[in-house]
Amino acid sequence: MEKKQFSGAVLAGGRSKRMGKDKASLVIGGRSLLDMQLDKLRAAGIQDLMVCDAPGNRRIIPCGARLVEDLQPDKGPLCAIASALSASSAECCVILSVDAAAVSADTVGKLMRTAEESTAEIVILASPSGLQPLIGVYKKSLAEDALALVNSGRLSVRELFLDHPPMLLELSDDSPELLNCNTPEDLEKFTALAAERQQ
Asked: Among 126, 135, 190, 199, who pairs with 168 as Cys (CB 3.0-4.6 Å)?
């Protein structure tokens, strides 16, 4: 079997309404959420690193990564995924939302290995409670279909799954890796956990 090549993209263009401030720049344990997610992709051996952001945000991009602006403004994560896939230099692209701060580099590696061993076009994290479409691996060849859905106004990532069913890498509902950093209360929890680990 030919070894697949991977790019990696952190989705950082959300409006952060529940947090009240830009989530990508939040600092936990001395590292911003954006840096933390890029570190996980680097640990998995990915060299082509992208930060997907809303057009005109003028975000400072960490060294070693490149900016990919959403192909259309305010169209949500499906458009961000389409933008990442269009810009990917590899056959497959690992997608990580910037607020999925608890997912581990080990799990990123497992997603990649599952994609290597499977013919599925999409591999995503899941639990009995539901799917995690913004933590997964997508084939670059899906860029056109994803953008077509955006252009038709079907903006949910799950719309892409109707014609391209994902393979699931399942975790238990109580897995800490399913925690997202979406609110000030979430940030407090993550900050406390980071402080405990440093002790």
From this structure: 126
